[in-house]
Design a protein that fits this description.
Order of helices and strands: HEHHEHEHHEHEHEHHEEHHHEEHEEH
Helix content: 40-55%
Radius of gyration: 22 Å
Structural class: alpha/beta
Strand content: 5-15%
Distance between the termini: 16 Å
Oligomer: single chain
Length: 394
């Protein structure tokens, strides 16, 4: 495939880039073998048919559509509250909206607009400064190390804060988690400062395996939790907050003010319920097999003598992890695409340049293991890595 040469400001370049992205998505999604199903792997028709089939099997196809949050949306909220062990939960169309709302609710109760969080946390990297610009909050960072803060860092942070937000796992650092003892110590340190604790649990569903605790026990460390329905559960969209009754009641008010009280949301709610029934019980097997895949990737890279590389974390904490290689991202993306086009196997997908402060010529990608990946043996992974590297270096 001929690479695109960007020319800033031209409609032709935008069209070429969109066409290239569509081509990659189609090729990778249509592979005979892949480690996971991507968000865009299917079509509108296949997605709707799968959801309708599950609705029929689960006995929900005869239910009436929701209006302004009743029906299936209420059922989903009750299910989330039960799974996480909280008295109440509220459905939101997006996690960005949900977290702004809950953090401003806590700010009103603590009297502090300051939120302590990691500089790699989602609100700091992926939300265009919404916590400050829209919610009127201010953020501080107990640490900038590529991990969650320690109890000592939380306890000794020089500025006061009303809420400590912990992203579990911390995606942009490699989907990393602390130990259970470390997490409980951090929560205790925040309590010592009279701060509340909120979990950005967009991917909380897959964390119990690492902690060796049940989902409700993990969530119960926090005063409130946000969860996503599409990142690990395969839903269409949507998120939920869980927490105390009074906070969730105020969150409903703010949801309306933010424009999140949609007329009908039953496709998203139904797909979330499907994820809780079908994908949630499978996540421990995905996490366990991600460790097999990561070890095979690491061994194959070492055996190939590629020089510097990194699998982060070395043993995955969840069913997702990062791989770093010393090549330009466009070179690695092209090799990944060629591998699928030639062999029908998708190992890696798109590679990206890392953030600032790192040398040029280094690229990172994320690997996920879900249902399709359970069929891969360690040798399958190593064979695919060797074939990929031959295309990079050929």
């Amino acid at each position: 495939m001929k690479p695109v040469t960007p020319v800033e400001g031209t409609d032709e370049t935008v069209a070429d880039e969109e066409a290239a992205q569509l081509h990659r998505t189609t090729v990778w999604g249509g592979a005979d073998r892949k480690l996971w199903d991507g968000f865009l792997d299917g079509t509108v028709g296949s997605g709707l048919r799968a959801l309708a089939d599950w609705a029929q099997r689960s006995g929900r196809d005869g239910e009436r559509p929701d209006t302004y949050g009743n029906g299936l949306v209420e059922e989903l909220e009750q299910r989330v509250a039960e799974e996480l062990g909280f008295p109440s939960a509220v459905f939101f169309p997006t996690g960005t909206m949900a977290q702004q709302v809950v953090l401003r609710c806590w700010a009103g109760r603590t009297g502090s607009p300051v939120v302590a969080l990691h500089p790699l946390a989602h609100p700091e990297v992926h939300e265009d400064g919404a916590l400050v610009a829209v919610a009127g909050l201010r953020t501080v960072h107990p640490t900038d190390a590529p991990r969650l803060p320690t109890a000592e860092e939380v306890r000794d942070h020089p500025e006061p804060f009303g809420t400590l937000m912990l992203e579990l796992p911390l995606r942009d650092a490699g989907f990393v988690l602390p130990s259970w003892e470390g997490l409980t110590a951090v929560v205790e340190a925040a309590r010592e400062r009279d701060a509340v604790v909120h979990f950005d649990g967009a991917r909380l569903w897959e964390c119990p395996t690492h902690f060796g605790r049940g989902l409700a026990e993990v969530a119960g460390l926090a005063d409130s939790v946000y969860v996503s329905f599409y990142k690990s559960l395969g839903g269409i969209s949507g998120a939920a907050l869980a927490g105390p009754e009074d906070v969730m009641e105020e969150a409903r008010v703010w949801r309306h003010r933010y424009g999140g009280m949609l007329f009908q949301q039953y496709p998203a709610a139904l797909s979330a319920l499907r994820g809780l029934d079908v994908e949630l019980p499978r996540l421990p097997s995905y996490v366990a097999h991600a460790r097999v895949v990561a070890a095979a990737v690491r061994e194959a890279l070492a055996e190939a003598g590629t020089g510097w590389f990194e699998v982060r974390p070395e043993t995955p904490h969840t069913h997702q992890f990062q791989v770093w290689l010393p090549y330009a991202p466009e070179v690695l993306t092209a090799a990944a695409l060629a591998q699928t086009e030639d062999t029908g196997v998708t190992l890696f997908r798109r590679w990206s340049a890392p953030g600032t402060g790192l040398p040029p010529g280094v690229a990172v990608t994320e690997l996920t293991v879900s249902s399709p990946g359970l069929e891969w043996t360690a040798e399958d992974v190593k064979t695919a890595v060797r074939d990929f590297l031959a295309r990079v270096e050929g």
